[in-house]
Design a protein that fits this description.
The chain has about 375 residues and is an alpha/beta fold. Helix content is about 35%, strand content about 15%. It binds pyridoxal-5'-phosphate. Pyridoxal-5'-phosphate binds near residues 83, 108, 149, 153 and 212. InterPro entries: Cys/Met-Metab_PyrdxlP-dep_enz (IPR000277), Cys_b_lyase_bac (IPR006233), Cys_met_metab_PP (IPR054542), PyrdxlP-dep_Trfase (IPR015424), PyrdxlP-dep_Trfase_major (IPR015421), PyrdxlP-dep_Trfase_small (IPR015422).
Amino acid sequence: MTAKDTLLVQVGREPHANHGVVNPPVYRASTILYPTLADYEEADRTPFSGTRYGRRGTPTTFALEEAVARLEGGYRSVAVPSGLAAITLTLMAFLKAGDHLLMVDTVYGPTRRFCDTVLKGFEVETTYYDPLADVAPLIRANTKLIFLESPGSLTFEVQDVAAVTAVARVRGIVSAIDNTWSAGLFFSPFEHGIDVSIQAATKYIVGHSDVMMGLITANEATWLRVKRATAFVGTAVSPDDCYLALRGLRTLSVRLARHQETALAIARWLARRAGIVHVRHPAFADCPGHAFWRRDFTGSNGLVSFVTEPASREGVAALLDGMRLFGLGASWGGYESLIIPFDPQPVRTATRWPYEGPCFRLHCGLEDADELIEDLDEGLKRLQARG
Ligand SMILES: *Cc1c(COP(=O)(O)O)cnc(C)c1O
């Protein structure tokens, strides 16, 4: 694959500084002790370097933050308690009352909800934009942040990131991207002009469906603003969770290679199967923005969405209730396969979803691809039997 494979093995650990132990130890801490008054005062002058107080992180946190900063190609990272917190804290770091935000229409649903409720209450106005449209005409004098997510949630529209960041740069606007889809492995946002990149580490970085975590990575110009926002709000993450996230990182590229292979096999199978109206995958030529995916990405993950011919709720329930290998549940990025039904239109205001039938999103896990296809085929037969 790429040099990121080697990076993921090497980064964020120093065995010879830790008795030769391969993995960084879990440092639990609240209080940090200083030998002298001079040291105590010096710590006050450099609040964001080294161990200062448990809430600011311990050496385990810093090892993870360093690893993700290198993976994403940014200056420094901040670990926060969830992917959603990484998003909301980034928005709060750059926006205040009277400001205007440009938010991609295909954004993760809870991000949209935060804009429409909390940010609105703080008098920040949000305009949603079509992921494939030029953002320049939507920029106002008070636009302070352009937020991207590419590929989009559920429907995977791919954005021309470099075009958006070029416009942002000229107008002095900060650009931030939710880069969770690529896991930091398949897309390097800072090479495309992004200022701040967000990972819901809960997904592929942790990779085992057992930890909630977000990482915000910033360039040198914006890092202090992000760090201050998280530190002043008071978020803290458990060093045990940081340990698990670091452990997940070590196998990220082999897991994703398998997720990718299985998802593509299933997507190709779905595209040939009767009763399927549309298969949505960024590697497919009919995915909106596919050319940008080909230009900018080095791979794809375990997600694929599809639309069936119109069906009843009973048909959809028959499909979902009888699945043997695909679990019915939110989130993704673990080793297991998942399926959820979804309806994109209620969470879109600037774009229109052109299909009528029920939509399903798959997360293709590490099981045998043929067995997953069999499970899906039986499910589709149940749906088609009910009509
Ligand atoms: C899951 C997800 C999040 C939120 O992450 P949590 O850790 O669940 O809060 C944010 N963005 C995207 C694209 C996601 O898929």
